Amino acid sequence: MTVAALQYLTGFGSEHETEALDGALPKGQFSPQRCPYGLYAEQFSTTAFTAPRAHNRRSWTYRLRPSVVMGGFTPWSQSNWLTAPLQGGHPSPEPMRWSPPPAPEQPLTFIEGVTTVAVNGDARSQCGLAIHLYQANRGMGDSAFYNADGELLLLPEQGELSLFTEFGRLQVAPGEIAVIPRGVKFKVDPVNGPLRGYLAENYGAPLTLPERGPVGANGFANERDFLYPVAWFEDRKAPHQLFCKFAGGFHSAPLSHSPFDVVAWTGNSAPYKYELSRFNVMGSVSFDHPDPSIFTVLTSPSDTAGWANLDFVIFPPRWMVAEHTFRPPWFHRNVMSEFMGLIKGQYDAKADGFLPGGMSLHNCMTPHGPDAAVHAQGSTTDLKPERYRDTLAFMLESRYLLEPTPHALNSTLRQQDYAQCWQGLESQFNGHR
Ligand SMILES: O=C(O)Cc1cc(O)ccc1O
Ligand SMILES: [Fe+2]
């Protein structure tokens, strides 16, 4: 399927407004006695009404029918998509790494093709996150899905996807990300080939831009580069299926019509996308390897300042110029838990074994760092300015430790010999300075 170039609104968290029909958006008020075109007004809130103004997220939608016009829910199952907390015992502190999954043999929609890798927190308490892989090779037809348990951050690694949402349509390719707020009805269709990627499910506070501190008013991910859909609707009376995940359970309800029936909307809670190459990278122009927090694209804060529920961090193409410095990531142990994936190319801390579509997990206090080959190279290389090209790794970092699912732990894709990559690091102590 080809999709004509889509239009977008620009600006992170702005009070956007858009109408698919002229005059569909009420003027000067949200809830007139009668809305233009006979539409129904429906407010959509993803923060509490009383959340501070700077964090408040809500939109007003003007639609053919209010969302409550639907059949009853019946249980449905998607047994690979798990929700925190798991009933597991004690998670292992081992460093873990997995090879990328092969293409599925059976037909899978996006929702059917989600497999959970690790979770933390508790979805019912709106705390923590889940990390999944997705694979899909067919569209969702006349169905839609919403997730009451959290916001979804899509990181495509293979295949462009067409995202249909109540707020409009977005097209998202590898190298871009999309965020779907908690509760938004959507469907994902492949554009021209199978889909594979990573999915973070954020049970906590909605993702937002990190502070810039002394960097100033510009840089990192700039607000203007976040793209929101324009209103788009279909007036289609045909049986649809609405799936949802609520408190970890899957449910399905019949609809007599398309759920994509929002003719106009205004507000700051809506799906958005972002091209990661727009990230204005900051780095060291003197010496030493800075903390990876300089690469934070989006953050979901916890209730403790600076300790994120979820930080989404990227390692994009950039220049490395630090002098008299060991340039690759250092060896370290961290109270924060680190999950990594690779969209493209090679990651500077690992010479082998960390592949696009693969992943690694270094949990709270688990030692890790460059493998022996990277350490040898980084300690001896001539420190000319060097451009890191064609590379895009990312990290999902959380203050809550990550519990891998039984599926991930027992997967044949798990590299049982991962820790061997550090075993060549012999003592070089020689008694001299
Ligand atoms: O572990 C990793 O590879 C991620 C990472 C990268 C970096 O540049 C510094 C610290 C860090 O945790
Ligand atoms: Fe790390």
Full CATH superfamily name of the largest domain: Jelly Rolls
Largest sheet: 9 strands, antiparallel
Low-confidence stretches: none
Q: Tell me the strand order in the biggest sheet.
A: 1-16-20-13-10-15-8-7-28
**Gross CATH architecture of the largest domain:** Sandwich
* CATH-assigned fold name of the largest domain: Jelly Rolls
CATH top level of the largest domain is Mainly Beta
How many domains comprise the coordinates? 2
Radius of gyration: 23 Å
Tally of alpha and pi helices: 2
The ligands bound in this entry are: 2-(3,6-dihydroxyphenyl)acetic acid, fe (ii) ion
Cofactor: Fe cation
Enzyme class: oxidoreductase
Domain Homogentisate 1,2-dioxygenase N-terminal: 7-276
Family: Belongs to the homogentisate dioxygenase family.
Description:
By secondary structure, this protein is mainly beta. The protein has two domains: 8-24 and 57-276, Jelly Rolls, CATH 2.60.120; 282-417, Sandwich (Jelly Rolls). It has helices at 372-380, 406-410; strands at residues 8-10, 16-19, 40-45, 58-63, 74-76, 96-98, 114-119, 129-136, 143-147, 151-158, 161-165, 168-172, 176-180, 186-190, 195-202, 226-229, 240-246, 249-255, 262-267, 272-275, 296-301, 308-315, 318-320, 337-344, 359-362, 386-388, 392-398, 403-404. Strand 11 and strand 12 (168-172) form a beta hairpin. Bound molecules: 2-(3,6-dihydroxyphenyl)acetic acid (OMD) and fe (ii) ion. Residues 332, 334, 338, 362, 368 line the site of fe (ii) ion.
